[in-house]
Amino acid sequence: MTQSQTMFLPQETIRKKRDGLPVPREQISQFIRGVVEGTVGEGQIAAFAMATLLKGMSIEECVSLTLAMRDSGEVLDWRDLPGPVVDKHSTGGVGDLVSLVLGPLVAACGGFVPMISGRGLSHTGGTLDKLESIPGYNVTPAPEVFRKVVRDCGLAIIGQTSALAPADKKIYAVRDITATVESIDLITASILSKKLAAGLQFLVMDVKFGNGAFMADESSAHILAKRLVEVANGAGMRTTALLTDMHQPLARSAGNALEVREAIEFLKGGKTDPRLREVVFALSAQKLAVSGLAASPVDAQAKLEAALASGRAAEVFAKMVRGLGGPSNFLENPDQFLPSAPVVLEVKSSEAGFVSRMDTRDLGLAVVALGGGRSRVEDTIDHSVGIVFQAALGDKISAGQTLAIVHAANSSKAEAAAKAVLRHIHLAATPPKSSPVILETIS
After folding, report:
1. Which of 1, 39, 97, 290 is most buried, by CB atoms within 10 Å?
2. pTM for this entry
3. Is 175 a catalytic site residue?
C-alpha cells in the first residue's frame, strides 16, 4: 500500500467537492475503492453525493468517477469477437420496446451486442420484465452461457450481475434516499460505468424528454445528453446521443407481453408504428455508423432494411431466445407461449375531436396499477396486462371511436384503467402543433 493510500481521508474528498475545488483522479479512485470495501460509510457517500449535486463536476472529474466505478468490479473483455461490440441505452419511457428490435437488427448487420438491461422503474417499463414474459428465458445466465450466446448470434439481453460496477449499486441506494438522484454527474457516472464494465467499444444513447420521460424538459435532456457524450468519449467509449420525444407512448403497446408481441410483429415485417420505426432505425443507423459497420447514413439504412426484409434480424431474436432458455419455436407461434389477460376492454371516446395531449407518465402508471409494473421492489408483475393505444397525438377521433384496448386481470382493474385512459387522453377542436420524434443528434 502506498503512502497516499494510507493517508487517504474520505472527508478531505468531501471537503474539496463541497468547496468547489478540483478533486484529483487518484483521490476519487480511493473514495470509490472505500465505498466497495466499506471504509467509506453511507453518511460520507451521502455527503459526497450532495456536494456533487450542489457544486457539479468538471468533465475530468466525471470521467475519473466513471472509470473508478467501472473498475470497482469485473470488466468484461470481448476482444476475441470478430466484430465491433456495441450497445444502446435509453433513459426510459412508456412503450419503449426499442431494445427488443434494435439489438437483433444491429446484430444482423455484423455488430455484437452484449446488452445489460434493467427492470421497470416508476412509470417506465423494463426490458428484463418484457423478456421474462417468455417462458424459460433466463435474464441471469452463467457467464459462459452469456458469452456463448453473444458469440453465436451476436446478441444477448440479460440483467446486471453483482460483479459489474458494484460501487454504483451502493452509491445509488444512498442517492435514492438523500434527494441526490437528480445530479447530472452522478446519473452520467452511474449509466456509463455499467456500460464500460460490460466491455463496450461503442454506445448510442437515447435521451428522452417530455411528459413521459424522467427529464421532462428539453433543456435538461440536452444537458444530460451532452454530458453523457463528453464523459463516455473521455473514458474511451465512442458515443453519440439522440434526443427523442416522449410526449406520448413510443409504441402502440405498453405492457410486457404486449410489447414483446409488437416487437415480433416489427421483426417479422408486419405493421409498425411509424414513430417507433423512426427511432429504432435512427439509433441503429448511428450504431452502424459509429462502429464502422456502415460507410454512410444511406448505407446504414440500406443494411438495416435488408436485415429486416430478409428475416435475419428475426432469426437473431429467435436464436437469442433459444440460447437463453426460451422455446425453440417461439418466433413461429408467440401466442402459444406469451400470457394473455382474461379481460379485454375497448375504451371508446364519448366525444369527437383531435388528440391534443396525452399524459404519458399517468398512462404508464395506469399500466403499473394493472399489475404490469412494480409499486414496491417485492411486487410480482403480471406480464399479461397492459394497454394497446389506438390513437396518437394529432389523430382525428369520432365519438364512439376506440382510443385504447385495456388488457386486465379482472373487470374492476379494467374499468379503473379505462377511466385513466379517458382522463389522460385529451381531445380538442383543433390538432396540436406537430413536433419531430427525434429532436437532435449529439456527437
Report:
1. 97
2. 0.90
3. yes
